[in-house]
Specification:
Helix content: over 70%
Largest sheet: none
Radius of gyration: 30 Å
Structural class: mainly alpha
Strand content: under 5%
Distance between the termini: 84 Å
């Protein structure tokens, strides 16, 4: 039987398993079954870490299916292995497609998060500084603007401390390479900071 090279398996993925079927009928079914198991393992390996990372459930299912093939081989069920080849082939092709699609989606999400982070990382220090100055001005003021009282100002001071901590956490997430998480944290902090400025009458003073 002609063995498929890993590079060929990588190009056509699980479809290479189907070569075992015609051979099984005219040479030796056990050899065909053994080759099918070998090809299945090689095809799964050829999909690489991306398959496990981006389609973990399908990867685990494919791995389990191949483990069952190997057990059938130990049990001498060559016919069962050859019969299972089309299903295994289809599952590996589906795994390859799912992993590729999810990787594209993940990279697009990462790019969007990087763009958001660039904007937010510029806006947040300015917002925090504006909020700090607004609270200082209110603290010096003998008369608060309409809709603002001293209790609100005190709550805002505590909220500012919380916002500073949240922003520091977002910076840590970004430094650790968790860009989407950092962007989400920064976005939430920005919304809170802007809402607090509006509440304190920063746009009407």
């Amino acid at each position: 039987m002609i063995r498929r090279a890993p590079s060929v398996l990588l190009a056509c993925c699980a479809s290479a398993l189907l070569v075992a079927l015609p051979v099984a009928g005219c040479v030796n079914q056990r050899d065909a079954a053994a080759q099918a198991v070998t090809d299945a393992e090689a095809a799964l390996s050829a999909l690489g870490a991306d398959a496990e990372r981006y389609a973990p459930e399908q990867f685990a299912a494919a791995k389990s299916a191949i483990a069952r093939l190997k057990q059938r081989m130990k049990d001498g069920d060559a016919a069962g292995i050859v019969a299972a080849v089309p299903e295994i082939s289809a599952s590996l092709d589906a795994l390859q497609s799912a992993a590729a699609q999810r990787k594209i989606e993940a990279l697009a999400l990462l790019e969007s998060a990087r763009s958001d982070w660039t904007r937010l990382s510029s806006e947040m220090p300015t917002l925090l500084n504006s909020l700090q100055k607004r609270l200082e001005a209110l603290g010096r003021s003998g008369q608060l603007p309409p809709g603002v009282d001293r209790a609100m100002v005190e709550r805002a001071r505590k909220e500012l401390d919380s916002l500073k901590a949240a922003w520091a956490k977002a910076l840590e997430s970004f430094a650790a390479g968790r860009v989407p998480e950092a962007a989400d944290e920064a976005r939430e902090s920005r919304e809170r900071a802007q809402a607090l400025l509006d509440e304190l009458g920063a746009n009407t003073a």
